[in-house]
Amino acid sequence: MPDDSFHVFDTTLRDGAQREGVNLTVADKLAIASLLDEFGVRFIEGGWPGANPKDTEFFQRASHELDLEHAQLCAFGATRRAGVQAADDPQVAALRDSGAPVVTLVAKSDIRHVERALRTTGEENLAMIADTVGHLREHGRRVFLDCEHFFDGYLYDPDYAVSVVRAAAEAGVDVVVLCDTNGGMLPADITRIVGEVAAASGARLGIHAQDDTGCAVANTLAAVEAGATHVQCTANGYGERVGNANLFSVVGALALKQGRDVLPEGCLARMTRVSQAVAEIVNISPSTHQPYVGISAFAHKAGLHASAIKVDPDLYQHTDPALVGNDMRMLVSDMAGRASIELKARELGFDLSGDRELLGRLVDRIKELEQSGYSFEAADASLELLLREELDSPVRYFEAESWRVISERRGGDRAGEAVSEATVKLQVKGERVIATAEGNGPVNALDRALRSAMEGVYTALAGLELTDYKVRILEGNSGTGAVTRILVTFGDGRGEWTTVGVGENVIDASWIALKDAMSYGLLRQGYPQD
Amino acid sequence: MPDDSFHVFDTTLRDGAQREGVNLTVADKLAIASLLDEFGVRFIEGGWPGANPKDTEFFQRASHELDLEHAQLCAFGATRRAGVQAADDPQVAALRDSGAPVVTLVAKSDIRHVERALRTTGEENLAMIADTVGHLREHGRRVFLDCEHFFDGYLYDPDYAVSVVRAAAEAGVDVVVLCDTNGGMLPADITRIVGEVAAASGARLGIHAQDDTGCAVANTLAAVEAGATHVQCTANGYGERVGNANLFSVVGALALKQGRDVLPEGCLARMTRVSQAVAEIVNISPSTHQPYVGISAFAHKAGLHASAIKVDPDLYQHTDPALVGNDMRMLVSDMAGRASIELKARELGFDLSGDRELLGRLVDRIKELEQSGYSFEAADASLELLLREELDSPVRYFEAESWRVISERRGGDRAGEAVSEATVKLQVKGERVIATAEGNGPVNALDRALRSAMEGVYTALAGLELTDYKVRILEGNSGTGAVTRILVTFGDGRGEWTTVGVGENVIDASWIALKDAMSYGLLRQGYPQD
User: Domain named Pyruvate carboxyltransferase: which ranges (chains A, B) (predicted)?
Assistant: First the structure.
């Protein structure tokens, strides 16, 4: 058993699943548990067996399907009901029999909640805690206790709140977790209260912070500063309302800023991958702007500082992105200079450092395109196609001759349905191809027509999927005559790439981005060119 | 001039615009400045005049187009170049001549950045500060000074960092702003360092926190705790990399948790609306999980606590959502409440308080439309048309029978030009009208065809101008089959109005919004209906 005098307790599968719109299957939960174990958290709270059939099944399947290297599973549940013995409460039995070696009990610690929500007395609540903990300890379970609404309760009636902590510790609880359930605390309150409770109770304390003030990470660190040695977090901060303390931000701060050994050797660098994989399973787009792991977390708008960054990147980043499995990215934006293009090209696998003339030509070309509305910030695939063109190895799987889209709606004002039909004419491997397809909109019709024209020759096209489509109108004040910038993202199951198209005509701009996204996809598949 | 001994300084338009993918037009910046002023921030940093033509234009137009009630505009720029006089530096002149009464100067305070990025000496850097501040003070400008990379610099060489603060204060700077430019700090460091710098310099201090550790809000509060009286924030936390301290979270904590008078009376309740309106303009989906203002911020999964919440909501929320213009939500779909619809109708000039049945019908209709992707947040004109329909006085200047758009591009890959042609069939004053027009895109062609069909009858149509057109793809993960929401803004020289259209087909959604915008425009002109 590794040392767990200080540990990370993950509750993505229980409290994180409270996030609005999240609905995890048992398979999802098993997959996430596996990732969290890889990341090296010490405890994984799996759910509430007995209260929720899906969670009961999770613990059953986990016992033979999960092979955990670092983590232990915890079952979550409540103390026994008022007026019965813990041994006779089926809910407690379900916890005991879940197979989890550790149980997290939730208990009321705010006397108002005891009286108004639980509708019992403060004394009976203490008895419920002592009795339930005692029963689980007798059966060899390790027990943590979540004090729900602790901070609000402490501010209202500190004596009662502390009596709950004492009762739990005396009954044999390992860690008493102080929960900011409503999430309204600020770090200074947390430091003060955790310090006072530690002094008054002598118990080992943990922290569970909700993010309603935007301070859950700081509140967690504030509790650690005051002596807490157990931190509850969720992957990507998923949780009810605003969310919970973000596992990755908390671990980042503890490991990189405070030098604590919170993860086993080698696990920290898995952070970015684990964050993104969990997001995929939960089916929420990964937050591009998440600390440490977001795709923008180490992105620099180059221009101004590019040359300085090249010389001394550490002056411009708060930590080395490689430590958390992320990368510095140079955004090719407005003020694109030679240095940033050179860095960007290197990132894409092209060494241009020896060719000043080529670099100059590229910079001019990019500036010109940016002036007409292009932006390569988010469109690496378009930038690579451009690079290859300037390097005299243009990507040419097909030549477009023309396209036409007809969209119409028949029937009255709110009735009828709009239909779109697209026709494309291409040269593919020396043959002229004409294809027509229908779609639920003009871009969808074009996408289908392009595929239909080429999928006989490039069968891999069927595996490429359009996963995102973004529209931005530039110069909002010129009305529908303004320039439209389209970003199209495709995926092939192994990765994603984004292309950009610009034009006065929204369909034309989409066409450019679509066409380039398919070309890049074919390049990724390794098709030879004519 | 109101008391500004403690104040909120917004830098959405300057530092917020550094967020990856954000690209604001001058019109966008003016609209955001107006919203921030409504929200009651004390200073609005508008950009860098002289360095960026768009920002120069912003300050020019702001002086006659913006009518600020609470805020003053600040121009941002750098201290003079090394080796010249401030009076001779065109960049400094651009700041002086921008018309902004306040200037924020950025200066290096980390000796490593002075030597390696600025490539000058520590002494010359101090002279650059003193000289530039002196010049601007002579010309009557109030000056704030941003100490870039302050905290990293202080940790490396505290004496030099403090000498920068002293030089600035002695030269006449009002507030010396300590910037965590790389965003790597944690609250405890901030409190300690701000306290030490205050003691060592005696200067009035401000704080600028980047969010790379997920602690920007807490870091801002930590600095205030240590004596800072100027807080720099951005709306929705927009900013480079992970972002900046979120204006709404910082104000929420200061006003609601610490009882500070940070905003003028009545402004706090605008928070949710302002947050969402800024997101619309920036064209980033509002974060559903943002503290205070997110649609999930006070959302409770009904069930477990539902009845307890109904009896005693304060036990389950950290603050009253009405204080920040948000609502508690019990059901996932429950977005439009009776009370808010009634309020909104009153705002538009309709008193519905006597008609509970009508209100119920309206709420149902709006919920249904919102579920299909509509959003009336920014589309008052569409909401008014809907209201009039439910009130049995629908606006019917014309009936649409059908539309068709043909777009095509002939010629090769990068050559040729896309053309669009639209045909509309309408009933106008009992006559069937067919009109066809060309445009530089499908929506432009539809706009022209609609006008061409009706301008003989409604001559005022010629005076209506399409001034803005926004596209938002909902559910970004379904590719081009996703639902598109269009916002169209028209103006008639006396005012502007916005309508919304939704559909799988981008042209169809645009058509709905265009048609309604014209109907509303005709209503404003006072044309009688048949």
Answer: 6-272
Token digits for A420?
């779109």
At B413 the pLDDT is 56
The whole-angstrom separation of Cα A142 and Cα A133 is 9
Q: Identify all chain A residues contacting B241, using CB atoms and an 8 Å cutoff.
A: 289, 296-300
Tens-digit pLDDT profile for residues A219-258: 999 999 999 999 999 999 999 999 999 999 999 999 999 9
| Average model confidence (pLDDT) across chain B | 89
Mean pLDDT of the region A362-371 = 81
pLDDT of residue A415: 63
For position A346, what pLDDT does the model report? 82
CB contact (8 A) between residue B291 and residue A242: yes
Cβ–Cβ gap A187/B221 under 8 Å: yes
- Chain A residues closer than 8 Å to B149 by CB: 315
In angstroms, how far is CA B70 from the centroid of its own chain? 16
Q: Phi/psi of residue A421, each to 5°?
A: -140, 130
Burial class, A64, CB count within 10 angstroms (exposed 0-12 / middle 13-18 / buried 19+): exposed
- Quote ipTM for the complex: 0.74
- The pLDDT of residue B454 is 96
B163, containing H or E segment = helix B158-171
Q: A-chain residues within 8 Å CB-CB of B308?
A: 116-117
Look at the block and give the residue holding tokens 């205070």: B292
Q: Which residue has the higher pLDDT, B379 or B31?
A: B31
What residue segments make up the domains of chain A, in order of their start? 7-282, 299-372, 398-457
Of A252, A214, A212, A213, nearest in space to A231 by CA: A252
**What is the C-alpha separation between A250 and B240, in angstroms, rounded?**
21
Q: Alpha-carbon Rg of chain B, whole angstroms?
A: 27
Q: Which CATH architecture group holds B7-282?
A: Alpha-Beta Barrel (3.20)
Out of B117, B187, B507, closest to residue A442 by CB: B507
Taking CB atoms and an 8 Å cutoff, what residues of chain A touch B184?
Answer: 257, 318-319
Instruction: Give the confidence band of A198 by pLDDT, cuts at 50, 70, 90.
Output: very high
Q: Nearest 5 degrees, angle CA B127-CA B129-CA B130?
A: 65
Range list of β-strands (E), A4-42: 7-10
Distance from CA of B434 to the nearest CA of A (A): 13
Interface test with A, best of B20, B192, B247, B475 (most A CBs within 10 A): B20
User: Considering only CA atoms, which of B64, B68, B85, B78 is closest in space to residue B10?
Assistant: B68
Sheet-wide strand order for A496-503: A465-473, A484-491, A496-503
pLDDT tens by residue, A415-441:
667 899 999 999 999 999 999 999 989
Element (H, E) at B485: strand B484-491
Task: Confirm if B245 and B219 have CB atoms less than 8 A apart.
Answer: yes
Instruction: Compute the distance between CA of residue B404 and CA of residue A178 in angstroms, rounded to an integer.
Output: 63
Fold of A398-457: Double Stranded RNA Binding Domain (3.30.160)
pLDDT reported for residue A530: 60
For chain A, the average pLDDT equals 90
Q: Rounded CA gap, A181 and A190, in Å?
A: 13
At residue B314, the pLDDT reads 84
Q: Say if strands B496-503 and B484-491 run parallel, antiparallel, or are unpaired.
A: antiparallel
- For residue B355, give how far its alpha carbon lies from the nearest alpha carbon of chain A (Å): 26
User: Quick check: A331 and B504 CB within 8 A?
Assistant: no
CA A481 to chain centroid: 38
Query: How many CA atoms lie within 13 Å of A40's alpha carbon, on the beta-carbon side?
Result: 18
Put simply, the answer to whether B241 touches A504 (Cβ < 8 Å) is no
Residue-wise pLDDT for B27-71, tens only, equals 899 999 999 999 999 999 999 998 878 899 999 999 999 999 999
Closest CB from A294, A296, A506 relative to B442: A506
Do A20 and B299 make contact, defined as CB atoms within 8 angstroms?
Answer: yes
